[in-house]
Amino acid sequence: xxxxxxxxxxxxxxxxxxALVLLLPAFGIWGAVKARPLLNTDDSCSSCGKxxxxxxxxxxxxxRLTFHPENETVPLPFLNFMRxxxxxxxxxxxxxxxxxPSRAAMWSGLFTHITESWNNFKGLDPNxxxxxxxxxxxxxxxxxxxxxxxxxxxxxLSNRVEAWTRNVDFLLQQEGRPVAELIGNKSYVRVMQKxxxxxxxxxxxxxxxxxxxxxxxxxxxxxxxxxPYPSPSSGENYGSSTFLTSPYWLQKxxxxxxxxxxxxxxxxxxxxxxxxxxxxxxTGKFTEIEIRDxxxxxxxxCAETDAMLGEVISALNETGLLRSTLVIFTADHGELxxxxxxxxxxxxYEASSHIPLLIMGPNIKSQFISNVxxxxxxxxxVLDIAGVSxxxxxxxxxxxPLLFKKAEDKIPSRKQHPTWILSEFHGCNVxxxxxxxxxxxxxxxxxxxGHSVSPQLFARTITLLYYPH
Length: 469
Fold this sequence. Notes:
Blueprint: H1 15-23, E1 52-58, H2 77-85, E2 86-93, H3 99-108, H4 112-115, H5 131-137, E3 141-146, H6 157-165, E4 179-182, H7 193-208, E5 217-222, E6 242-245, H8 247-250, H9 271-279, H10 288-319, E7 325-331, H11 350-353, E8 354-355, E9 357-360, E10 367-374, H12 378-386, H13 400-403, H14 407-410, E11 420-425, E12 434-439, E13 442-447, E14 456-459
Parallel strand pairs: 1-5, 1-7, 2-10, 3-5, 4-6
Antiparallel strand pairs: 2-8, 2-9, 7-9, 11-12, 12-13, 13-14
Helix pairs in contact: 7-10
C-alpha cells in the first residue's frame, strides 16, 4: 500500500544501533514537572478551570487510514471531524504491536521492557497506578467503559507459553486462515453488539451524569473493533481470523480504491516474516479477490468503529460539553490485513505498528503533526491536561507543547519530545523478539540479539513521513 523505497532490506547489525535500542530508556528520564491547568475559561468546570477528557481507544486500527491519500477507501466522518477541528499525528506508533503489552504501555507510560508486560498473558498488576488513578486523586471524576486489557491473566494459556516455545520444531497453535464474512442485510448496522452497548453506555453517561457533575471528568471508552472476530473452526483456543461486517458497512467501501499488496516470493521473504506467515496460516494460495475482500471487510469494520466514536462526539455536542472537553482517539496497534502475506499484528511493518492519534479540544490547533510519538506519551499528556504533576522516570513525554495554539502563554517550558520512539515485541506468532527504532527519517528493525537474525532498515521517501513498510 502506498509508495516508497526500501533502502536496505537486510542491513548489517551494528553495535551502536543495537546498543541504542537497549539504552533508549535512559533518555526518557526527567524530574517531576508541575503542570498548569490547560484552560481557565467559563467553558470548563466552573469550580476548577480544568477541562474534561474523553479517550476512545479501539483495537487494531491502521493509523494510516486517518491521513494518507492512498488509504481513502472508506468514509470516516467522525475521524475527519476530529482531523478538521484538532491535531492529527501523522507518525504515532504502538510501543508493542499486540493487545495487552501495548495497553500496558499506554496506561503506565512505560516501555514494555520496563513493565515486563511481555505478551497477552503478562500485563500490569491490577493495582498498578495509572494516569486515570492520578487524575481521580487530583479531583477528576473517572469513568471507564469497555475493553481495558492491560492487566495480567487474560487471553488463552497458549499466549503465556508460546513465546518460550517458538524455537522448537512444533507449534502449539496455528491461527485460523483469514476469511471475509458477511452477516445481516443493508439495514443491519450494529454488527459488533458488545461495542455498541458500551458506546451507548458511555453516551448515556455523558448525557445523564456528566452534565450534572461539579468537577471535571475523565471518560475512557475501549472498543474491540476493528479487531477480527474469533474463528471457532480453528479449535478450542481459536484465534481471531474472521473479518466480519454487514452489507450496510461494506457498501461504504470504495472497492476500486483498495490496494492489493505485493508479496515477495518465499525465497526473498525475511525469515521472521516467513515464520509469522506460517503461524498465521497465510502461506497457502490466496486469490486477488480473497485478498481484496479481506481488506474491504476490514475497512468496513473501521467505518463501524468510526460510527461508535460518533456516538460519543454527538453526546458531547448535544450536551454542550464538547467545547470544554478534550477528545483523544487512538488504538493499541494496527492490522496487517494481508500486507506482507500476513494478517493480525505482531509486526513492526507500518500496517501493524502505525496507530491513529487525534486530539481535539479547546485551544488545540487544527494541524498535522509530523513528530514521531507513541502510546507512552498519553500518560504524561493527560496529566499535563489536568494540571497534575508528571511523575519522574516515565518513558513518555507530554504532547501538549505540540498542540496548543499559543503554547508559550499556556504551559511552562517542557523538555522536548525526542526525535525517536521505541517499539518492541516478545509474544507469539514471531520466532524472535523484535525491536523497532523509528526516527523522522529512518525505521530500524532488529531481532533477537541483533546478530543472529538479519535486521532491516527503511527510509522515509515521501512528504507525509509515510512508510510503506
